[in-house]
Write a structure and sequence with these properties.
Length: 533
């Protein structure tokens, strides 16, 4: 029996090795292996039966005789041998698989190719199924773990991705891609220190690993360490001066910092490296837009769309540009096209909602704000947009609720504080209004709107000295007609007509379009010594 076990094990190992090198699926391997075992089983069973017949002996009379002992014992023995052999076949198969796993851990991972095909077609769920089968067949299949991690990442499950990347590292400690990808997953989760640690490990494994420098630069950028970010992108470009991603990311940082000449130069270098680089045209368009060169910006966006008609960002940027130009219908048209490309493009819904609100189409605006919130329930700007609509419709409690929701999500949402304060001011809840204006000035000490409205709140409370201080601050920051008129109006409330007349005359002089007719009325009252109300 020992010899038989060795023979069956050898057959199993040879068969499995042959099948694992073929293009057959795991199910086919299982079927063929079972057929071989059954064939061996019946062969041995037949051989055993023939041996049993030979055991019969001839009697002295020349006739064949079978002893009573043989009649009773042979079937029982047959069953024992049969059961034993089945058990032997099962054990030998397990031995075979175990030996192959130990001796040949890097055999081709079946189903890995199928998973890769699904991944290429963005069918990530199906890819995960095939990668899972691959690691069941071969627990040492590092590629399957790595690619399953990528599939989880594409499905927005970075925690699961990290588990698979870590498993890949256990099998292949020098797999630089595993460190890179795990770093990107940590970055998505906001674990910046862990992300940088993985990027550094990837660079230790390959000092010319361009993608690792880019991602480490992005980590620094997310922390606000822009100089270090630029250094990382520059290091990648030192290694490969034609690395367009290095130019693009460095240009993005320069653009964010307002260093438009440097940014434009890098975007242009990226285009020289790859004339079909749509992202670089988008970047140049954004620079023109920031400099209010809208026609040039639109030309850049058009080029990006020509290269990639399904590139949503240039359409969105064109919408922003048309908004700045006051072309609301064209803004809506571009946002709609961006939404056609990506039905979950929350920024485009928000922007289109803003355009509808500017046109007074509040119902359409609300629909778009609602859709943006449906896509992202934590989208503070969409709640703010709904607050604008409710405020315009004088549904003040609803407006306050929306502004408050935006602030809960983003405690630094400056315009939400300002507008909630304005609603409180309208409701004559002056202390609440002043608290919101205080928060607004805390976030941006140079924003005149907060000082102006806080001054108005103090004036209505008849705290004229405080109101004068606020309006004086406004005049210092932005000496326009509204500031002088508000300051002069407050002086008339105090009965200080000399100062009132000086400020109101300056306000009327600056109000060339007669936007503040009440300013002239206040001036006439001051000249007659009548306090304004």
């Amino acid at each position: 029996m020992v010899i038989l076990a060795i023979i069956v094990t050898a057959i199993d190992i040879t068969t499995l090795l042959i099948l694992k090198q073929s293009a057959l699926s795991f199910q086919t391997i299982g079927i063929l292996t079972t057929i071989i075992l059954i064939w061996v089983f019946w062969y041995v069973a037949f051989f055993h039966k023939k041996n049993g017949e030979v055991d019969a002996s001839r009697g002295s009379d020349g006739f064949t005789s079978i002893s009573t002992e043989s009649i009773h014992e042979s079937p029982k023995s047959d069953r024992k041998i049969t059961i034993g052999f089945i058990f032997l076949c099962f054990i030998s198969t397990l031995w075979s698989v175990a030996i192959i796993s130990v001796l040949f851990p890097t055999l081709d991972c079946k189903h890995l190719n199928n998973g890769n095909a699904h991944f290429a077609n963005q069918k990530y769920q199906l890819a995960i199924v095939d990668y899972t089968i691959a690691v069941v067949i071969n627990p040492k299949c590092a590629g399957a773990y790595l690619n399953r991690g990528l599939s989880f990442a594409r499905l927005g499950k970075p925690q699961l991705a990290i588990v698979d990347y870590s498993k890949t590292m256990e099998i292949e400690p020098t797999n630089k891609m595993a460190y890179l990808f795990r770093g990107t997953a940590y970055q998505e989760l906001g674990e910046i220190d862990l992300a940088k640690s993985d990027f550094e490990k990837a660079i230790d494994l390959d000092t010319n690993y361009l993608d690792a420098y880019i991602w480490r630069g992005l980590s620094y950028q997310s922390e606000g360490n822009y100089d270090l970010a630029v250094a990382e992108f520059s290091k990648a470009l030192e290694i490969d001066p034609s690395y367009k991603l290095g130019y693009l990311n460095r240009a993005n940082v320069f653009s964010f910092l307002g260093k438009y000449d440097l940014a434009f130069s890098d975007y242009t270098s990226a285009i020289e490296t790859d004339p079909q680089y749509a992202e670089a045209y988008l970047g140049r368009g954004n620079i023109y837009g920031a400099q209010q060169q809208y026609k040039l910006a639109l030309l850049e966006y058009a080029e990006a769309i020509k290269i990639n008609p399904n590139y949503k960002e240039p359409h969105y940027s064109r919408a922003i540009t048309f908004s700045r130009m006051g072309e609301l219908d064209l803004q809506i048209e571009e946002d709609t096209e961006a939404i056609r490309i990506d039905s979950n493009y929350k920024e485009a819904y928000l922007d289109r909602g803003n355009a509808y609100f500017a046109q007074g189409k509040n119902e359409l605006a609300l629909l778009d704000y609602n859709k943006a919130i449906q896509i992202d329930p934590k989208y503070a700007d969409a709640y703010y947009g709904r607050g604008l609509v409710y405020g315009a419709e004088e549904k003040y409690e609803l407006a306050i609720a929306e502004y408050s929701k935006a602030i809960d999500i983003n405690p630094n949402h400056m315009t939400a504080y300002l507008n909630r304060g304005v609603v409180y001011l309208t409701q004559e809840k002056y202390d609440l209004a002043i608290a919101d204006f205080n928060k607004r000035t805390e976030l941006d000490p140079n924003y005149v709107g907060a000082y102006f409205n806080r001054g108005e709140a103090y004036r209505r409370q008849k705290k004229y000295d405080l109101a004068i201080a606020e309006f004086t601050k406004v005049v210092e920051l932005e000496p326009d007609a509204a500031a002088y008129c508000a300051l002069g109006f407050t002086y008339t409330n105090m009965g200080d007509f000399e100062r009132a007349i000086a400020s109101l005359e300056q306000g009327v002089k600056l109000d060339t379009e007669n936007n503040y007719p009440w300013c002239l009325t206040a001036l006439n009252d001051a000249q007659q010594g009548i306090p304004s109300q």
